[in-house]
């Protein structure tokens, strides 16, 4: 490599880090909003990708489990600066919210979460945020009767059989139903995505993804090591979530609250606080890890929940061109997306609604917070601050 080429490579990597960090500090509003920020910065302003390739990349990341917006950012970073570019794009976009939520978790440990009134306000924020997410996702992912029926099946199953693996079973059944109902979907024309990752490396990434998914639970049982158990819980949650950050809530809740690793009050307080920070909602794992095992637990949880996103985007994009042209794959994906709506509604009822709306005044306040988000279009951090302040004021009424 010539000195000029090396200098250019380092300038490219530095540019990726600076731009992604700026996005990580300013990208409020959840995964759909993040994709809009990415489009404005990476496509319109810097022209790192053309419109068609960006749309194709977004389609792939919607197809994969995990945090879609983070995977899009990683993919753009890889296409711009190789593997190191993908890592830097991820770090820049993710670290601001990771640091903020770790600090919040450490502060929260000095409070009694069971009795703090402002914590109750944050739990009501979670009601408003998830209700808003459900309405938007239902309109997009379950627009017809067949997909509404799949969503209903997922809702009933997730509510009646609340086990750690029910979400995986629901997604598999939904994929089969989608294949059955929509197997004759026509594939649209696609351009070819240029991706600097070989198919051999991609296969290694996919093998590691499935290998960890199978081996970590075995190691957990064999060793009874707390750190391995923690890594396994977060890795499995990051591997099996379709639909983005809000849908990870029921998986994480079932991993950590019934087992006694943390209380439901602290869990929902952290979820409410996660709405106030920019960046991906999956950094909620950083808060959970910090509550369970301090900053070391936070770093482990963050690495574990985002590792599947890395392995899947690196492992699938070289094969995406042939995969996305298959109408059966498209039909299965439509079924999975519909099931995501039902899974999220089940999480909305329990634990969010059942532990947050305890009196008429709670419902009234949730309606106000929902209106702030859905109708008045106020920034999420304003809604969160209002929730915390309102929780304290309601205790005086």
TrEMBL record:
<protein>
    <submittedName>
        <fullName>Chromate transporter</fullName>
    </submittedName>
</protein>
<keyword id="KW-1133">Transmembrane helix</keyword>
<feature type="transmembrane region" description="Helical">
    <location>
        <begin position="12"/>
        <end position="38"/>
    </location>
</feature>
<dbReference type="GO" id="GO:0015109">
    <property type="term" value="F:chromate transmembrane transporter activity"/>
</dbReference>
<keyword id="KW-0812">Transmembrane</keyword>
<dbReference type="GO" id="GO:0005886">
    <property type="term" value="C:plasma membrane"/>
</dbReference>
<dbReference type="InterPro" id="IPR003370">
    <property type="entry name" value="Chromate_transpt"/>
</dbReference>
<feature type="transmembrane region" description="Helical">
    <location>
        <begin position="332"/>
        <end position="351"/>
    </location>
</feature>
<keyword id="KW-0472">Membrane</keyword>
<feature type="transmembrane region" description="Helical">
    <location>
        <begin position="273"/>
        <end position="292"/>
    </location>
</feature>
<dbReference type="Pfam" id="PF02417">
    <property type="entry name" value="Chromate_transp"/>
</dbReference>
<dbReference type="InterPro" id="IPR014047">
    <property type="entry name" value="Chr_Tranpt_l_chain"/>
</dbReference>
<feature type="transmembrane region" description="Helical">
    <location>
        <begin position="234"/>
        <end position="252"/>
    </location>
</feature>
<keyword id="KW-1003">Cell membrane</keyword>
<feature type="transmembrane region" description="Helical">
    <location>
        <begin position="120"/>
        <end position="138"/>
    </location>
</feature>
<feature type="transmembrane region" description="Helical">
    <location>
        <begin position="150"/>
        <end position="181"/>
    </location>
</feature>
<comment type="similarity">
    <text>Belongs to the chromate ion transporter (CHR) (TC 2.A.51) family.</text>
</comment>
<feature type="transmembrane region" description="Helical">
    <location>
        <begin position="87"/>
        <end position="108"/>
    </location>
</feature>
<feature type="transmembrane region" description="Helical">
    <location>
        <begin position="357"/>
        <end position="376"/>
    </location>
</feature>
<feature type="transmembrane region" description="Helical">
    <location>
        <begin position="298"/>
        <end position="320"/>
    </location>
</feature>
<feature type="transmembrane region" description="Helical">
    <location>
        <begin position="201"/>
        <end position="219"/>
    </location>
</feature>
